[in-house]
Amino acid sequence: MTSIGRVKARGVLLVMLCVALLLDASCKRQPGTEQSLFPPSNQVADWAKAGVIRTFEAADLWKYIDGDAERYLKAGVQRVSTTDYKFQGKVDATVDIYTMGNAAGAEKIFRSEPAVDMKPIQLGDEARLSGQSLVFRKGACLVRIVAFEESAETQQALLQLGHGIELRLAR
Amino acid sequence: MSSLCGANRRDFLKKCLTGAAVLGVSGRMGLLSAAEEGAALAKSRVVIAHDAMLRGAGTTVDSRRMLGLLDRAMQALFDRDNPIEPWRKLVRPGETVGLKVNALGGRGLSSNLQLVEAISERLQEAGIKASDIVVWDRDTDEMEHVGFHVSTGGNRVQCFGTDQVDYEPELAMYGSVGSRLSKILTQRCNVLINVPVLKDHDGAGVTMALKNMYGVIHNPNKYHPNGCNPYIADLNMLPEIRAKMRLTICDATTACFEGGPGYKPEYSWKHNALMVSQDPVALDYTGWQIIERKRAEKGLKTLEGDKRAPNYIATAADAQHRLGTNDPRRIAVVEV
Questions:
Q1: Alpha-carbon distance B58 to B270, whole Å?
Q2: Nearest Cα to B81, choosing from B136, B8, B13, B181?
Q3: Is the dihedral of CA B83, B84, B86, B87 positive or negative?
Q4: Residue B40: its pLDDT value, please?
Q5: Does position B163 have pLDDT exceeding 50, yes or no?
Q6: What's the whole-model pTM score?
Q7: Partner of B199 for a Cys bridge, out of A28, A164, B141, B260, CB 3.0 to 4.6 A?
Q8: For chain A, what are the domain ranges?
Q9: Sequence-ordered list of residues with C-beta below 8 angstroms from that of B131, at least 6 positions apart, any chain
Q10: pLDDT at B283
Q11: Given CB atoms, is A92 within the 8 Å cutoff of chain B?
Q12: How far away is chain B from the Cα of A36, in angstroms, using its nearest Cα?
């Protein structure tokens, strides 16, 4: 291989390395940056943020999901951030973003939940949608959006909010 | 009185027997045939009251229908014609009554506000002062988040979390458990009415009456290994809990068959029911069977098959604990 060829090969490797690091870092944020994960009001059409962001580190996860915390801890959860939204001023929803140690942890949680009454959809690395909830994983993140009322528009609205969150996770 | 509030005695008995016949067909729970009805009174009675129209045409529980549902359940449990009489059997004026709700599941799967209002209304009609009723759980913010209105003074029903008053400094101990108890339990209530929710539980298998006492202590996170067994049973042996617990009213308006204890709509169903009993073990056993039936209907493994059978229920019934019975032959399930 010529010296020019070696330089090109190194360049390609460098680019691949950067892409891999970016993908891996997409959900491994430091505490305090949770604000950036949640779309502000009306960034996603008709969705308004309706609460403060609460964050629970792994050691305190039981304060948020006591009883369900163990399986997240076994899968390497680092923290969960949660806040509320409102769709068109009438449908309330809660968004939970679990940051795991790696993508395998998010996959483990996602795969452990039976797909009862849910359909697979294209979002993030893997996603499921039902009439009132959307669950997807992307990198080391697992996102759960739950709406508290079912209507003809709820499912589509959940999907739009999910896309809005996915975009922010990819940054 | 509204026709919703007071069930006629003859209708009530007819419904009991109809419910018993249905249960006789469906099988696994305690049976109550007409011939056995008298004998069944000696059994631990678990009443399941249903109202298919509890939400009318909408999704929100109707307050009047909830009151009627509670009345039917309580009258069936205490075998009374009048909706106030069961409460007079349960509490006396001057007593302070704690309603231990469950707000942990968040919106969608926490003790229903309309149910708590209905219980408070009947307690007051039975002679309990509003300010002697405390609606409580571990955390005030959690309670507010699911819709409870905090109230800490005046002549109103009180409503707040243990975070407002703290836990006792000393540990209360029994068996595997050493925990600080909520001062609401130890200092504010001399009667406890347990108001849990019918739920699947990732660690324990199911959570209803017995498990809801995890919200009474400062360190519930320590007691989740081994399916919470024997921790749940040991915790319920603490004298402050055992001596004050008089009744469980389990909210099964929305119930959960998988993925609990948090709310996941895909694993929840509108059961539109209440379960009441003075035997928390019998109630938990009966609720477990309801969850298993729903799991089977949805094509899921049994909890045993999922390696999370709620073995703590048997422990609570064993010779060391005797908190109630898990023997279906000794449980009279009455559907009204």
A1: 12
A2: B8
A3: positive
A4: 46
A5: yes
A6: 0.85
A7: B260
A8: 27-169
A9: B154, B155, B156, B157, B158
A10: 98
A11: yes
A12: 23
Q: Residues A10, A12, A14, A17: is their CA dihedral positive or negative?
A: negative
Q: What tens digit of pLDDT does each residue of B276-295 get?
A: 999 999 999 999 999 999 99
What domain range is B129 assigned to? 9-335
Please tell me whether residue A158 adopts helix, strand or coil conformation.
Answer: helix
Condensed to tens digits (0 to 9), the pLDDT of residues A93-149 reads: 999 999 999 999 999 999 999 999 899 999 999 999 999 999 999 999 999 999 998
Q: How far apart are the C-alpha atoms of A108 and B156, rounded to whole Å?
A: 48
CATH of domain A27-169: 3.40.1000
Q: Is residue B261 part of a domain?
A: yes
> Domain for residue B26, yes or no?
yes
Interface size, chain A vs chain B, as Cβ–Cβ contacts under 8 Å? 67
> Does B204 fall in a domain?
yes
What is the structure's pLDDT at A3?
Answer: 59
pLDDT of residue B23: 40
In this complex, the residue of B107, B108, B220 whose CB is nearest that of residue A66 is B220
Number of structural domains in chain B:
1
The pair of structure tokens assigned to B127 is 């002679």
Q: Is residue B4 part of a domain?
A: no
Q: What is the ipTM metric for this complex?
A: 0.80
- CATH number for the domain harbouring residue B71: 3.40.50.11440
CA gap B306, B300 in Å, rounded: 9
* Closest-approach residue (CA) in chain B for A149: B59
Query: What pLDDT digit, counting tens, does each position of A145-156 carry?
Result: 999 988 889 999
